[in-house]
Amino acid sequence: MDNYIRVYENAFSDELCDRLINKFESTPEGNRERHDMGEMHFSQVNFRACGWKEEQDELVNIFLSHTKKYTADVGVTTEFPQKYALEDIRLKKYSPDGYDQFGPHVDVVDKSTSTRFLVFFVYLNDNVSGGTHFDRINLTSPCKKGSILIFPPLWTHLHSGLKPIDKPKYIVGSYLHYVAHD
Question: What is the domain count for the chain?
Answer without folding.
Answer: 1
